[in-house]
Every structure is written in C-alpha cells, then in structure tokens.
Amino acid sequence: MRWINDVDQPEVPSTEPRVVDHPFRPDHHKKARMPYTEEQIRKVFKSFDKNRDGQLSKAEPEAAFAKLGAIWTSVRAWLSLWHADDNGDDFISLDNELDKLVDYALKLGYTL
C-alpha cells in the first residue's frame, strides 16, 4: 500500500514558479460586462414598438427581453405585463406604464 505512505510524507515545496494569471488564458481578454442604464433599457423597449401604436403587446416585450439577453423570454414578457400593466388591458403603454417596465428590467440586472 504505497499510496498510504505517500500521503504520510510531508509535502516538499516546489521551486518552480507558479503561474497565477497568464495572458494567454482564454478568458484573459474578456471585457468587463457593464449593466444597462435606465435610458438604454428604455430605448430597447421603445424600439420594439414595431407598429408604433404607443403600446407594447406581449410579443413586443418578449423580443425586447431577447435583445437584452433573457433566457426565458416568454416568461419575462408575461411577468413584465404583470409588473407594469396597471389597467389590465394586456398592453404596456409607453406613456404611462413604461417606467414600471424599465424598473422591472433594471432589477433583473441585464448587462451589455
């Protein structure tokens, strides 16, 4: 049982230098991910009002959440209606309810 004897031996410190941070690591040159600002998120949602009616239906926030990087976009769209649709008409008004939608998206912490 040689391996038991090896465990009992004290570890000899190595004289070889240890590489802690190497410039050629695959993730070394990744840029820092910055969170979206309130204005950037507002512009994303406004840009997905494709029919320019001043309201977002369920499909439009779903596409906007996909642009922001959400995984379950249909769930996010449904929850965004639940958070922001004050009058219950299944639309998010860009005039009255967009602020609540933007606040909800900011809490989710999407990054650029």
TrEMBL record:
Residues 36-71 form the EF-hand domain. Gene3D superfamilies: EF-hand. GO terms for molecular function: calcium ion binding. Residues 1-32 are annotated as: Disordered. It comes from the Eukaryota. PROSITE patterns: EF_HAND_2. This is EF-hand domain-containing protein.
